[in-house]
Design a protein that fits this description.
single chain, alpha+beta, 2 domains, 5-stranded mixed sheet, two-stranded antiparallel ribbon, 41% helix, 13% strand
């Protein structure tokens, strides 16, 4: 498709409005910064635009030009219960906490991407320009953020920002100007579909406000393992920024995989399905969070040190589902566990006869899948097989329990 297909009709340039200094990136793209007070005055509240348009349709009237243009380049927010509507609520809480300084420097909101159908007039020497004051700017990326900012501005007291200086809080933005609706739609498409989505568990493994992630980092920082006769920090063998570890890599596991082990150690079997979600100290009732941190780090540090050779060989112990079931097993020896080990039984005793080789005979149908040709796949995650691994580790006499220990199974009554 040629550029002519998208070409915008010639429209009158904007020559007055809010004075602003801009940096030209290319003929139709500029970047700048703007305070929240002015941003929310220049860019209409998307949720309010939708509500007015819905009332117009119900009354048999055509929505105004701004509402029609926005509908061309954005998806609807919908009701407060829609995914985007719910995201507005959580985003507003996050932004408000950041503005109040609760996160220190560890918070971020991306630049808002705006579309102005008319071309801007920009002084080539100084970058001085004007932004349209009414109905001239539409967010084609970052609209949830814009909606959240409007929500905060309309009721700042509800967010603890009653006396906050919104004129002093700056937002970065970019404006695509003088381009057609089709071009703006294409940018919306590219921004939402061209980038590779971040795996949720990977993102969570980097959230240092999350209770489980904090403990995971403590575990990494405080544990040393013996490898080839040399004591090395555990961090040398944990990879960040990736979902999987290459079989030839030096690292044993991903940070998100280690976090799964931590989550299930904290929460037990329920943690198998909660491994990809936030963990809060309140999730462990009537327990001192500091005690949870200390006991979890001590137990897992000992476990990893004792089985360093198995981790280094990348045996089945490093698979996400096995880490999940293993953590839920370790949970049974935690002081806050409601599913404690039977008298005389220990985690070490449950693990000592396990065959950790990555072979179908031991792990097929438990933590791995085997196809008709006998090929073993370990692609499943904690949710897929974590409970079956837990069953196999904790019930040695069961069919799966005997399988992972390389023992034949004889059904009772036969």
């Amino acid at each position: 498709m040629s550029a002519d297909t998208f070409r915008a009709p010639a429209l009158k340039p904007i020559t007055n409005g809010l004075p602003i200094d801009l940096m030209v990136i290319r003929d139709t793209l500029v970047i700048g910064r703007l305070d929240i007070e002015n941003l929310t005055n220049l860019v209409n509240d998307p949720m309010e635009v939708e509500e007015v348009a819905a009332r117009d349709v119900k009354a048999g009237r055509e929505p105004d030009d701004y509402a029609r243009m926005r509908a061309e380049v954005q998806r609807l927010i919908g009701t407060p219960r829609s995914p985007k509507g719910q995201n507005v609520v959580s985003y507003a809480d996050y932004i408000a906490a950041g503005l109040k300084g609760e996160f220190g420097n560890a918070w971020s909101i991306p630049p808002v991407t705006l579309w102005c159908r008319r071309p801007l007039t920009i002084d080539p020497a100084t970058g001085s320009s004007y932004l349209p004051i009414r109905n001239g700017l539409i967010a084609i990326d970052g609209e949830t953020q814009v909606t959240a900012l409007h929500r905060i501005k309309k009721n700042p007291g509800a967010y603890g920002l009653k006396d906050f200086d919104f004129e002093g809080a700056m937002i970065a933005f970019e404006v695509y100007h003088g381009i057609s609706v089709l071009e703006a739609r294409q940018i919306f498409h590219d921004r939402n579909l061209k980038g590779a989505p971040v795996d949720k568990s990977l993102a969570l493994s980097m959230d240092m406000r999350d209770f489980a992630t904090t403990i995971t980092q403590m575990l990494v920082d405080s544990t040393a393992v013996t490898h080839e006769g040399e004591e090395r920090p555990l961090g040398d063998f944990v990879i960040t920024g990736k979902r999987q570890v290459n079989s030839k890599a030096r690292e044993w596991m991903t940070l998100s995989g280690l976090r799964t082990l931590v989550v299930t150690t904290i929460l037990g079997k329920p943690g198998i399905h909660a491994a990809s979600g936030d963990v809060d100290p309140d999730d462990i009732k009537d327990t001192d969070p500091n005690a949870v941190k200390r006991e979890t780090v001590e137990a897992l540090s000992a476990l990893i040190r004792d089985h360093a050779d198995l981790f280094h060989a990348k045996t089945a112990i490093t698979a996400p589902a096995v880490l999940a079931g293993l953590g839920a097993t370790v949970h049974r020896q935690m002081s806050w566990s409601k599913e404690t080990l039977p008298e005389g039984q220990t985690v070490q005793g449950l693990l000592e006869d396990v065959r950790w080789e990555r072979e179908a005979d031991y792990w097929g149908g438990v933590a791995a899948k085997v196809n008709d040709r006998g090929t073993v796949s370990w692609a499943g995650g904690a949710r897929d097989s974590g409970h079956k691994v837990y069953e196999a580790l904790n019930n040695p006499a069961s069919e799966v329990g005997r399988q992972i220990r390389g023992l034949p199974y004889q059904r009772q009554g036969f």
